[in-house]
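Q: Hi! First time doing this. I have a protein sequence and I read that you can turn it into a structure. Is that right? Here it is:
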Amino acid sequence: MSQNPKGKEALFGRAVVDPEFRKQLLADPEGTIAAGGYEVDAEVLQTLKDVDPAEAEAATRDLDSLADRRAAS
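A: Yes, that's right. Below is the predicted 3D structure, encoded as structure tokens:
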């Protein structure tokens, strides 16, 4: 069974490592998902709409720092 490479795993994976993409995704989930060619179900879309962008950004600061360190090495 193969997984869709543009499914929720790819979407969330990119959101974790790409801060600008994450900001776009949280500001406009539907538009960002459509523009990127991702396919997610209604539950995932609603979850993204319900996320407070400020809270998500605070929770991901450490992830951004980790991504920066990995890119520098």
